[in-house]
Amino acid sequence: MRVSQQLTKTLREAPRDSEGGNQELLVRGGFVRQLTSGVYSYLPLGNRVIRKISQIVREEMDRAGGQEISMPVIQPKDIWDKRPASGPTRSEAMGDVLFKLKDRKGRDMVLGPTHEEVVTILTAEFARSYRDLPQLIYQIQTKLRDEPRPRGGLLRVREFIMKDLYSFDADYDGMDVSYRKMADAYRAIFTRSGLRFIVIQADSGAIGGKDSQEFLAITEAGEDDAMMCDTCDYAANREKAEFVRTELPREPEAALEEVYTPDCKSISDLAAFLQVPEAKTIKSVCYVAGGKMVMALVRGDLEINEVKLSNMLYRAGINAADMHLATPEELTQAGIVAGYTSPLGKDERVFIVADTSLKLGNNFVAGANRVDYHVKNVNYPRDFRVDEWEDIASAYTGATCVRCGGTLRAIRGSEVGHIFKLGTKYSELFDATYLDAEGAAHPMLMGCYGIGVGRIMATLVEQSHDEKGIIWPFSVAPYSVALVGLDLEKEENRQTAEQLYADLQAAGIEVIYDDRAETAGVKFNDADLLGYPIRAVISKRSLKNGGVEIKLRSQRESRVVPLADAVGVMQDEIRRGMASA
Ligand SMILES: [Zn+2]
């Protein structure tokens, strides 16, 4: 490719709507353009990166036995409305994230955010016998999710390219084998892409399922929090991370005592006012979910984790898709005084969920359900009822690891891959059964495995850039070599550069040739911004010094190699660069 003929141009300055990070670099470099909130075009350079990542993904999926198909983006909504034996339908669980529309006949349709339904229907048609299993079916395709807050450039978008694979097995052992195959393939993909990542135990969220692992690209720009043990290899999503709750010294149970606590609306105010540790208080927060008032209780030194809470509610048969903090109106209607919420004296119209930390202490301070008053010496079960005891508190930096007693710390990243064991959830819903050797029918065991292809591109940029621009790993760079021709008005220079350009192409090297009538500064800045792994310069000076000046984007020093050796030297660098990913 010649830069003079390229569609895109670089921007010298950050665009006005810049969000910094990957968004700024990818927009300035002309890799992508935003059409509307969270919806991007991939321009030639960006598209080349996406193709490279997709190819790595495809090779590893095929190596693991995957078969590539392509499923429709547009789907009838009724397959999303199938009601399982318990819990919400898929469209209820996804809520407004699901793009919905009507066709000309008034039939409800959705734009696919994922494809469990479609692939289960398809596989059920063809895999009828145990001999037809296992099946690993995948696609690399555009998905749509109406995210409430698209942000972070390509990190959170509404239209995105994803690889999704679905496994179908005859039994649990088979499902475990497929799951392990995918876990290995995912490690290979992220390693080959040059990404720094960790594997964590994850919450399976609205999709439902059993085991699940998340692959997190480590970046401060990400919006996923994970907790890692500093001693063992325990690592889990913050929404899932378990930790050991500290035990408080037990005291003899004392009598309830209402105390005047003016201006104590927060736990820290209250603890300071009464001169007790925060851990001696009960934090009670009211939510409404599925039309029910839910009171969540944790010890005052901990925070409520809403994901753990909503998962618990689903398990208790309460649809938590619309879970929200109770509004002042909802509180008043339930006779609850905001800021002084109390578990005392609640009837069964309030569903009370308590964190296990409240079993590790007594004589707590709780709200009195009366403005400016709290109650001391609150004890379970003497003083209040609990419907469910559960882990509903967030792990924190400094918490104790459940596995080894080590210390947990928070780490930030962006989810680039997620694998789940689904079990029979979808095969039961869509009657995807197979016949065993005796002719008896069983539901297939499924797993699903996603990779955000665009997100790999964005997180690579977050992880690998400097003040001048992007530093692409060799494996996914849009071109391996930027050939920069200078002093091209001189015929000899032009001919030499053209010849090297032709030789590189003939050797199968992906090269972009900057043949523009621009200054050296402009061309060097562009090559640095765009992040090509190798820069090769032909100029008056390089020729005088004996040939071609070659510099790696990741290094400071350049060297001059004779023209006759240039192609071979670059081939060696590419080979080395590919191997080191
Ligand atoms: Zn540990």
> Low-confidence spans: pLDDT under 50, at least 5 residues?
none
For the residues shown, what is the average pLDDT?
A: 94
**Shape field:** globular
Largest sheet: 9 strands, mixed
CATH topology of the largest domain: BirA Bifunctional Protein, domain 2
Specify the structural class: alpha+beta
CATH C-level of the largest domain? Alpha Beta
Quote the distance from N terminus to C terminus.
25 Å
Task: Please identify, by name, the CATH architecture of the largest domain.
Answer: 2-Layer Sandwich
Structure summary, number of beta strands? 31
Number of helices: 14
Beta content comes to: 25-35%
- What proportion of the residues is helical, as a percent range? 25-40%
Structure, briefly:
Helices cover 27% and strands 28% of the residues. It is of the alpha+beta class and 581 residues long.
Characterization of this structure:
- Helix 1 (21-28) packs across helix 10 (453-463).
- The chain is an alpha+beta fold.
- It has 14 helices and 31 strands.
- The two termini are 25 Å apart.
- It folds into 3 domains: 31-68 and 120-241 and 410-461, BirA Bifunctional Protein, domain 2, CATH 3.30.930; 257-390, YbaK/aminoacyl-tRNA synthetase-associated domain (YbaK protein, Alpha-Beta Complex); 472-580, Anticodon-binding domain (Rossmann fold, 3-Layer(aba) Sandwich).
- Zinc ion (ZN) binds at residues 229, 231-232, 234, 401, 403-404, 406.
